[in-house]
């Protein structure tokens, strides 16, 4: 379960503190699939970064399965993120000089666990990428890139997948298929999904929709 | 995926920059390593020859020139010392042994040196092919006392390993009466000389000398006494160019050295001291070359820093992605430091390869000119140099690495491609 209590986050802009998020209480159940909706700049990405531990709130606590990540050292938080969170981005953020297989393996490089090549190959097969394993991102279609990014987010068998507009760069058909893959895998493996999106139709396919504007 | 693989991948992503940056490091390392290797090999080769004896006795003049001429077969002979010096030294209680030598002839640039057979055992020269000649210092003194020189009909010669490139076992030749490199002029047609033995290589100037018995040297027509020369002195053809001398342990060395230098017609030089002096003289050039090489290396390593630093702006997103995947700041820092050290290591290895190839290519020429064998195989000092370059390369990478370390992942992930 993910639990945010009394979380306050502000950004400094030209010396002025701008409140971004103010969440008194938010709970997301294990295996729950949640959509974050709101206008650009409303704080969706900031919430994802807070949950992943990439940024810290000024106050409050963020618990993932009972661990308050705000109390961890930065090093421990990095390791916690590597072990428990899978991240997916709008522009996929694949590394150019690495093949599809290597990009996926990168996702498993910082956990401290032994690399599980068999699991990576299974992922590639389940996502229809077996014949693209050695291809570089520039040699892949946008849809294939999205699937590699999804595989990278899932490779560590994370407790939570944090997806920031994961289908924002895709056409509706490809977008649906990627989203299907994400939801199916999440359901099969009881993974919690927090997905920031502008797409109300995609949001409606998730268990719950949270409006970020409510936390101003 | 291991960090080392990520680093290798990152370096391979920018092949041109990687190769060019490493190449500049390679140039510095190659220059530094070659200068050092040649210097070390030369000094070792010269010191090896210098260790043959404690003193070189010769006519008054430059001590360095005497040592260079008699032990290293370089430069011109300063003249002769009276034969009686050998006799008196052999009668001195503090003298362990003496080896007389006479120079003045050559063949195709190789010195023909009249010696007694003790040289081979004293100098650790072993005959690899054929045999040695037999003519001792005792034989020489007896011949001189009896007033004759029993040269062979065909002079037997034992050649150094480098001479074997031009003369084979059994070959006959006529030495020329000069020490000039080009040889040729004034051949001694009265003294056919035959190669009867070939010495094993020593990596010293001994490898490019032709040794004949002193009795045969004196029997050569041009070396016989004339009316003018029979007065003795430095032009006495029956004198000796030098005497290699080993003293007995204790105070004898200093006394003999002083006595010989007190005489009006002789000097005694310590070869080890002269070699040291020689390398002090050329040490300035050596240091200048090494300084230039060190500067080239320093500039190259700054180049590594600049090359990596220039990519930092474009790589912020890459670091942010790695951070999002769970990489710690220290991991990102280590990755950039490892890239920098990797570039330096690649350049260093390439430099050692260039140095080895260059040394190998030049070793033949150096050996022909000086007799000194320069090894193309990297030694401990080259490996220490490589290690130093890798460490400095890694340290140079700290500057861009700190920039990577400070990357705020959230900020750079937010921006789109």
Straight-line distance between termini of chain A: 23 Å
**Quick one: how many beta strands of chain A?**
9
- Strand arrangement, largest sheet of chain A? 6-7-8-3-9
According to CATH, the homologous superfamily of chain A is: P-loop containing nucleotide triphosphate hydrolases
Which structural category do the helix and sheet elements of chain A fall into?
A: alpha/beta
Q: In percent, how much strand structure appears in the residues of chain A? A: 25-35%
- List unreliable stretches of 5+ residues of chain B: none
The CA-CA distance between the termini of chain B, in Å, is: 25 Å
Tell me how many strands of chain B there are: 10
Number of helical stretches of at least 4 residues of chain A: 7
Biggest β-sheet strands, sense, barrel of chain B: 10 strands, mixed
The total domain count of chain B is 2
Helix fraction of chain A, binned, reads 25-40%
What does the average pLDDT of chain B come to?
86
Residues in β-strands, percent of chain B: 5-15%
Given the C-alpha coordinates, what overall shape of chain B results? elongated
Mean pLDDT of chain A: 89
Based on CA atoms alone, the radius of gyration of chain B comes out at 31 Å
Oligomeric category: heterodimer
- CATH-defined fold name of chain A: Rossmann fold
Query: Quick one: CATH class of chain A?
Result: Alpha Beta
């Amino acid at each position: 379960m993910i639990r945010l209590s009394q979380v306050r986050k502000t950004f400094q802009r030209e010396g002025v503190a701008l409140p971004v998020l103010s969440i008194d209480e938010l709970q997301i159940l294990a295996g729950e699939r949640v959509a974050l909706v709101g206008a650009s700049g409303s704080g969706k990405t900031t919430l994802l970064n807070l949950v992943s531990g990439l940024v810290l709130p000024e106050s409050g606590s963020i618990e993932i399965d009972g661990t308050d990540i705000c109390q961890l050292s930065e090093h421990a938080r990095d390791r916690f993120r590597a072990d428990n969170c899978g991240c997916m981005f709008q522009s996929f953020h694949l590394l150019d000089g690495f093949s599809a297989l290597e990009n996926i393996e990168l996702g498993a490089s910082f956990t401290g666990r032994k690399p599980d090549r068999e699991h990576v190959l299974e992922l590639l097969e389940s996502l229809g990428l077996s014949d693209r394993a050695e291809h570089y991102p520039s040699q892949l279609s946008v849809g294939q890139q999205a699937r590699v990014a999804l595989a990278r987010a899932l490779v560590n068998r994370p407790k939570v997948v944090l997806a920031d507009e994961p289908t924002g760069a895709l056409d509706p058909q490809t977008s649906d298929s990627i989203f299907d893959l994400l939801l199916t895998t999440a359901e099969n493996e009881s993974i919690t999904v927090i997905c920031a999106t502008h797409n109300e139709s995609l949001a409606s396919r998730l268990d719950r929709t949270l409006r970020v504007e409510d936390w101003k | 995926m291991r960090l080392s693989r990520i680093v290798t991948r990152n370096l391979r992503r920018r092949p041109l920059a990687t190769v060019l940056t490493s190449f500049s490091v390679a140039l510095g390392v190659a220059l530094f390593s070659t200068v050092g290797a040649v210097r070390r090999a030369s000094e070792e080769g010269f010191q090896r020859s210098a260790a043959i004896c404690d003193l070189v006795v010769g006519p008054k003049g430059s001590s360095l020139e005497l040592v260079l001429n008699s032990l290293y077969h370089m430069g011109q002979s300063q003249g002769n010392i009276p034969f009686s010096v050998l006799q008196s030294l052999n009668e001195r209680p503090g003298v362990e042994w003496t080896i007389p030598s006479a120079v003045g002839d050559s063949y195709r640039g190789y010195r023909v040196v009249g010696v007694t057979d003790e040289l081979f055992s004293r100098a650790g020269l072993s005959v690899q092919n054929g045999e040695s000649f037999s003519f001792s210092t005792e034989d020489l003194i007896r011949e001189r006392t009896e007033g004759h020189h029993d040269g062979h009909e065909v002079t037997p010669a034992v050649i150094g390993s480098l001479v074997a490139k031009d003369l084979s076992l059994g070959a006959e030749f006529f030495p020329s009466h000069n020490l000039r490199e080009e040889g040729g002029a004034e051949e001694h047609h009265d003294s056919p000389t035959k190669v009867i033995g070939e010495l094993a290589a020593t990596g010293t100037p001994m490898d490019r000398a032709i040794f004949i018995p002193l009795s045969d040297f004196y029997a050569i027509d041009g070396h016989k006494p004339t009316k003018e020369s029979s007065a003795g002195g430095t032009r006495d053809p029956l004198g000796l160019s030098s005497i290699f001398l080993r003293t007995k342990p204790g105070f004898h060395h200093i006394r003999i050295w002083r006595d010989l230098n007190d005489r009006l017609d002789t000097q005694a030089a310590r070869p080890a001291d002269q070699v040291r002096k020689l390398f002090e003289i050329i040490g300035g050039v050596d240091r200048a070359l090494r300084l230039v090489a060190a500067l080239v290396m320093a500039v190259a390593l700054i180049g590594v820093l600049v090359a990596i630093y220039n990519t930092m702006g474009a790589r912020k997103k890459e670091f942010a992605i790695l951070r999002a995947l769970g990489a710690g700041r220290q991991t990102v820092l280590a990755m950039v430091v490892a890239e920098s050290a990797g570039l330096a290591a690649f350049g260093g290895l390439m430099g050692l390869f260039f140095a080895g190839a260059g040394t190998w290519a030049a070793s033949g020429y150096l050996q022909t000119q000086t007799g000194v064998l320069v090894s193309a195989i990297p030694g401990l000092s080259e490996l220490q140099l490589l290690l130093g370059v890798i460490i400095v390369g890694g340290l140079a990478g700290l500057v861009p690495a700190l920039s990577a370390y400070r990357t705020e992942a959230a900020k750079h992930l937010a921006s789109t491609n």
